[in-house]
Write a structure and sequence with these properties.
About 35% of the residues lie in helices and about 20% in strands. It is of the alpha/beta class. It folds into two domains: about 110 residues, 2-Layer Sandwich (Nucleotidyltransferase, domain 5); about 150 residues, 2-Layer Sandwich (Nucleotidyltransferase, domain 5), CATH 3.30.420. It is globular.
Length: about 300
């Protein structure tokens, strides 16, 4: 058994977040051997700490076959671009134009799978989690920001750049007309209205801290339900996975399902919204497993 384990590919996994980097080493699919967390400070400090972690692992476990990086964005996913593998115009101070994929490809001489954290998360959820078996699946995280990723037949959607679901424009709730929104680009897009900081900005507390009869719960559910119905119209997904800190609010996912059913008005057939709209099956590990899935996918393309 030990010899068989050593023949399985060794993967480096990085969930690159704006607050922390989660690092992992995996031997084959879903077999994560070890993990670590490091704070996201400056690019130089953060990447040096990550490189040191993986160099130690290489000394102990051998050569890496591939890396996977699921990163906060925006990122450059065009393999023909000179900036491929980089974070682009992020509001995270100091991180714009930071190349992630190139650093690990150079230092470990192996292929690197690179994508957004949400594309990585839905790829993992479609392989091992709540969206397993779905041909079209979407993952949306609602937290400090709002981001979304999608897979079709096991491949993340790319295009001009990558999905930016948090910046979808919405109808305003009739009880929420005076708040301008916090998005510096669009004001009252989905992220500007329904992210954690947007909730805090107008009600002075997180959604989970507000009483269950507070109107904020119905307002946020209304905005998130609009995204659900829009995705039904645009991509006809079989699963929509809603994660992130805001979705930990008691009863919110049930409110979103109910409101989406109302807004859909029966147009999409006998859709069971309790089956369509689900919580992450991989929980807080969706990002790290997303990095593992990206590493595996990249190795398959080698």
């Amino acid at each position: 058994m030990a010899n068989a384990a050593r023949t399985r590919p060794l993967f480096g996994c990085i969930e690159a977040g704006g607050t922390k980097f989660v690092l992992g080493v995996a031997r084959g699919p879903r077999a994560i051997l070890r993990t670590a967390r490091i704070p996201t400070t400056t690019p130089a400090e953060t990447l040096d700490a990550a490189l040191s972690y993986f160099e130690t692992a290489r000394e102990e476990l051998g050569r890496f076959d591939a890396f996977g990086i699921a990163s906060f964005g925006p990122v450059d996913l065009d393999p023909h671009s000179p900036g491929y593998g980089s974070i682009t115009n992020t509001p995270k101070p100091g991180w714009s134009d930071t190349n992630l994929a190139g650093v690990f490809a150079h230092n470990f001489d192996c292929p690197v799978g690179f994508d957004t954290d949400v594309n990585g998360a839905i790829l993992a959820e479609s392989l091992w989690g709540a969206a397993a078996g779905a041909g079209v699946a979407i993952y949306v995280t609602i937290g400090t920001g709002i981001g979304g990723g999608a897979v079709v037949d096991g491949r993340p959607i790319h295009g001009w750049r990558h999905p930016e679901m948090g910046h979808a424009l919405l109808r305003r709730h009739s009880d929420d007309l005076d708040f301008a929104g916090i998005c510096p680009f669009h004001g009252d897009c989905l992220e500007g209205l329904a992210s954690g900081p947007a909730i805090q900005a107008r009600w002075g507390a997180s959604l989970s801290e507000l009483t269950l009869d507070h109107p904020a719960h119905d307002i946020i559910a209304y905005y998130l339900a609009q995204l659900v119905v829009a995705q039904q119209a645009l991509l006809s997904p079989e699963k929509i996975v809603l994660g992130g800190g805001v979705m930990a609010t008691l009863g919110l996912i049930e409110r979103v399902r109910s409101e989406a059913q109302r807004l859909g008005a029966g147009y999409f057939g006998k859709q069971d919204y309790a089956v369509l709209v689900v919580s992450p099956g991989l929980g807080e590990q969706a990002g790290l497993f997303g990095a593992l899935a990206l590493a595996q996918l990249r190795l398959e393309k080698k």
